[in-house]
Amino acid sequence: MHEYDQYILDKAAKCCSNGEFDRSLYDKYDVKMGLRDRDGKGVVAGLTNISRVTGFETVDGKVIPCRGKLIYRGYSVEDLISAQGNEKGLFEKCAYLLLFNEIPSEEELATFSRYLNKQMSLPANFVKDVILRENGSDLMNTMSRCVMNMAMYDHHITDMSPAKALKNCMKLIATMPLFAVYGYQAYNHFDMGGNLHIVKPKADLTVAENILRMLRPGKGYTELEALVLDRLLVLHLEHGGGNNSTFTARVVSSAGSDTYAVIVAALMSLKGPKHGGANLKVSYMADDIRAHVKHPDDPDKLAAYLEKIVNKEVFDKKGLVYGMGHAVYTESDPRAEVLRTLAEKLAEANGRSADYQMYRNIELLAPDIIRKKHTAGAICANVDLYSGFIYELLGIPKDLYTPMFAVARTVGWCAHHMEEIISSNKIIRPAYVSVVKKIEMD
Fold first, then answer.
1. Where are the alpha helices (DSSP H) in 236-374?
2. What b/e readout covers 372-386, taking b as 16+ CB neighbours within 10 angstroms?
3. pLDDT for 335-360, tens place per residue?
4. Catalytic hit among 326, 333, 355, 399
5. Does 300 qualify as catalytic in the annotation?
6. Is 374 a catalytic residue?
7. Whole-angstrom Cα distance, residue 90 to residue 185?
8. d(CA 172, CA 407)
9. 425 band by pLDDT with thresholds 50, 70 and 90
């Protein structure tokens, strides 16, 4: 076994040397590394009518930072949340909006919600044979396995019509919360020694309410908790066609693959720590701050420790303040703006206002500290700064942070899947410049 390990290590080193390129080649061949221009903006790969993400604006021919905007089918996400007031069920309303390009009437929303609730049922013995039999700590793998197993029950999987794709999308949007929560319950029981709770969803509850009910049976939840989770899911529904998981969904859709394969591919993209795991990084960073700073809500003490983080002296020594900065947003991330208010309310209700103040101070202090170390323009808090804290306040385990992201984003993936199969008949196929040199055989 040791020899085999050493063999692999030696060959891996060779792979590493083979995979390195002279950086000048990227300039020579004008390669858009990571499908991004030199200014960091993504190259234009397609059209979409689903959402728009804005972090810059053009004034007198100059591109300048601006307050961030996230638009769902023409509507500002902030306006959608504000218009809903304290009413529940915004997740369902925005899911309808993203899928069908219109805000539903009360009757349409009721019909849509009933349909989703009906689709939350799983095949006979699915929980026992799939979720309980093969479980583990990696819940994104569990969810992917569940989706692929659902494909085995589809006897018309080769039907690629829009109607069939939509039917599959609705089924997966409805069942993804079950895959996440049941997967966690199985892991918590078999691996962590906890009690096993498999609670069926109730037809008269919203998605957010059902998640809380299934996750903590018998303990109940407050109206505020259900509302906050509902709004958090809404903010994670969709974020343009260029983010890694959504682009993955469109690439696989363009190949003519079925809906199940598309969603599994997107899940595996979101699983990557460079994409979907950032809120977990923020949570670990916050734990580290609380462990090493006596009064983390004190701005001066917190600033001193943030400087150590940026200088790679503490925490994971990567020099990153997680939850700060974004590839598109500059002056503000509208999702973080909404979550800040929700986090403050929920923290106050839970007697955790001091912890909220720590997060708020990170948002206020980190930009200047980062700019002292690095040349950087506008830096704002992103959605991950407050989302992990909200999950913590809701009693949602860390293992479920990224899966909860996936539960919501499945709606966006499905909307893009539908748009891709309807609007495009070409497989997505970018080019790679080959720099391999021909070798003559002896």
1. 244-254, 259-271, 278-292, 299-310, 334-349, 353-373
2. eeeeeebbbbbbbbb
3. 999 999 999 999 999 999 999 999 99
4. 326
5. no
6. no
7. 26
8. 9
9. confident
Residue 343 one-letter amino acid: A
Dihedral pair phi/psi, residue 11, rounded to 5°: -70, -30
Reported for 78-86, long-range contacts at CB under 8 A and 24+ positions apart, including other chains, are 78/334, 78/337, 78/338, 80/234, 81/231, 81/234, 81/338, 86/223, 86/227
C-beta separation of 367 from 321 below 8 A: no
Q: Which two tokens stand for residue 280?
A: 């977990």
Do 322 and 280 form a contact (C-beta atoms < 8 A)?
A: no
Cα-Cα-Cα-Cα torsion 363, 365, 366, 367, nearest 10 degrees, comes to 90
Q: What is the DSSP letter of 58?
A: E
CB-based burial of residue 133 (10 Å sphere; 0-12 exposed, 13-18 middle, 19+ buried)? exposed
**Catalytic entry in 154, 275, 288, 297:** 275
pLDDT tens digits along 119-171:
999 999 999 999 999 889 999 999 999 999 999 999 999 999 999 999 999 99
What's phi and psi for 258, nearest 5 deg?
Answer: -75, 170
> 436-441 contacts: CB < 8 A, separation 24 or more?
none
Domain residue spans in the chain? Answer: 70-274+398-422, 278-393
Kindly report the CATH class assigned to 278-393.
mainly alpha
Say whether 239 is catalytic.
Answer: no
357 DSSP 8-state letter: H
Contact predicate 302/353, CB 8 Å: no
The reported pTM is 0.95
Tell me the backbone φ, ψ of residue 68, rounded to 5 degrees: -70, 150
Tokens of 186: 């199985």
Distance between CA atoms of 121 and 132, rounded to whole angstroms?
16
CB-based contacts of 318-322 (< 8 A; 24+ apart in sequence): 319/373, 320/281, 321/285, 321/362, 321/366, 321/369, 321/370, 322/278, 322/281, 322/282, 322/285, 322/384, 322/385
According to CATH, the superfamily of the domain at 70-274+398-422 is Citrate Synthase, domain 1 (1.10.580.10)
Confidence tier at 62 by pLDDT (50, 70, 90): confident
C-alpha span between 211 and 80 (Å, rounded):
22
